[in-house]
Each structure stands twice: as C-alpha cells, then as structure tokens.
Amino acid sequence: MTILQSIFLGIIQGAGEFLPISSSAHLILAPWIFHFSDPGLSFDVALHFGTLVAVVLYFWRDWIAIFSLTRAGLLSGNSKARISSKPSFLWLLVLATIPGILAGYFLESYAETTFRSPILIAIMLGAVGLVLYLVDKYHAHRKKMDQITWADSLWIGLSQAMAIIPGVSRSGATITTGLFLGLNRESAARFSFLLSTPIIFGAAVVKLPHLLELGLDAYLILGMLSAAVSGYLAIKYLLKFVERSSYAVFFWYRLGLAAVILLIYFLRG
Q1: Helical residues (DSSP H) of the chain, grouped into ranges
Q2: Bridge partners of 143?
Q3: What whole-number distance in Å separates Cα of residue 269 and Cα of residue 265?
C-alpha cells in the first residue's frame, strides 16, 4: 500500500461512515476496482479510530449533555434538534446499540466472506438507496430528537444491525428508519451519528490488541488522520445539507455506483 492509497482509503472510510453510502462497501470495492493490495486488519482498526475521533470531536458537547441528562434530567442541544427532555435518553441509545452488537458477534464471519460479494453489495446499494429516497420524499418528518420513543429506538437499532451487510450503510439504514418513524431530517441524522459512537468505539476496542501488537507506521497514521478529517467534515456538512435539501442525491449516487459495480463484474466475467 502506498501513502496515497492510505489517504484515499481513509477519506473513503471517514466520509462513508457518516454519509448514507456505506463505508464498508467502498472499502471492499476500492481494492477490487483499482487492484489495491489488501491493507489488512491493522489498517481497518486505524480507520475506525479515525472515525471515532471525528464523531467524538463533533459531538462531545452532546455527550456531556446526554450524561448530564441521565444524572440530573437537564435539557441541552440546539433549537432544531434538542437532545431530549428525558433523563432516559442515554438508555435509548443503549437499547438501539444492542442489536448491532449482537449482529456483529454472530454474523462477523459472514461479513468477512459471504457478504462481500460485489453483486450483493450492488443490490443493497440500490435497494436501501431507493427506500431512503421514497421515505424521505413521501413520508412526513415532524418529530424531533426529544420525541424519540423506546419503540423508535429499538427499530433504529434493528436497522443498524442490517449494516453488517456491506452496501446497506449503517448511517443509511438508521437515517432511513428514523425518517420512516417521522423524525425530521436533521434529527434522524443526528441520532444516527450519536448512535454510531458506541458501535465504532466497540469495534475499535475489540481489535485494538492487534494494532498495539504490530505498532503504528506512517500508513496507519495517515489513514487514521484522513478518516478523522473526512469524517468530521461529512458530519458537519451533512447536518447543514439536510436542513435545506433532501437525501435524493445519495440515492442517485448509490444507484450509479451499483450500476458501475455490475458493469465491471460482468465485463470481467
């Protein structure tokens, strides 16, 4: 792997983790399309730490408010996407995290083998993108963050578990489900990003011993930094983008990428 490849893959991971386009699909497809060598588990861990840095840096005030809510019932957040007036908001995130943990534990071997098929990835990119487009366009979006219920949280968590399949997209699935449940665009995205924190943290911690065993090098550090920067920018500008625009652009991107995958697959035989 070259320096440029490590930076390129870091940017893909950071942007794809938070935009509804599937980072795992892009990380599988980039070596397949461009004939990169497999960067290995250590690089994957480094990229996860990069995206963890991004989401913590952007939402650190929100997390302080969330833990304050749990202890003292305080209310925090901005006027458009307030966190919650309920002291139980942290436990809503905990509930939504559980299905993803179970999916990762029981289906990890499939995620590393069966689920990596380019055909499956193309199908998931198109199908989930279409559902996102339809829900965003035709469903009412009035609920705010402080109106999320236990049932909403569970459904969003179950959709997050589906992201074990590359092409589904963790953010794509959770944002789509949030929109379907009536959340407004910004609240659906913000809840999705907050929900990503424990999942990314858990994935990084589980694989941390492997990274410590092999040590850091320039490729890992650059990949981590580029993932952190691109992830931070993806969060920041997606939240601004959905205040005034729909998610349609991501559907068309996913559909176009799915078409490219199928074309390359069949051309290569």
Answers
A1: 3-18, 23-34, 41-72, 89-111, 118-138, 150-161, 170-180, 185-214, 218-244, 248-268
A2: 183
A3: 6
Main-chain phi, psi angles of 141, to 5 degrees = -130, 90
> In this structure, are residues 115 and 103 in contact, taking their beta carbons and an 8 Å threshold?
no
Could you give the angle at which helices 23-34 and 118-138 cross, rounded to 10 degrees? 140
* 99 band by pLDDT with thresholds 50, 70 and 90: very high
Answer for the pair 221, 10: CB distance below 8 angstroms, yes or no.
no
Closest CA to 90 of 127, 58, 64, 57: 64
CA distances 132 to 14, 102, 196, Å, are 21, 24, 18
Whole-number Å distance between alpha carbons of 22 and 167: 5
Q: pLDDT per residue over 168-181, tens digit each?
A: 999 999 999 999 99
Q: Residues 144-170: what's their mean pLDDT?
A: 93
- Average pLDDT of 225-236? 96
The per-residue pLDDT for range 239-250, each reduced to its tens digit, is 999 988 999 999
Domain boundaries, the chain: 3-268
For 193, counting Cβ atoms within 10 Å of its Cβ (0-12 exposed, 13-18 middle, 19+ buried), the class is: buried
Measured distance CA(39)–CA(30) in Å, rounded: 11
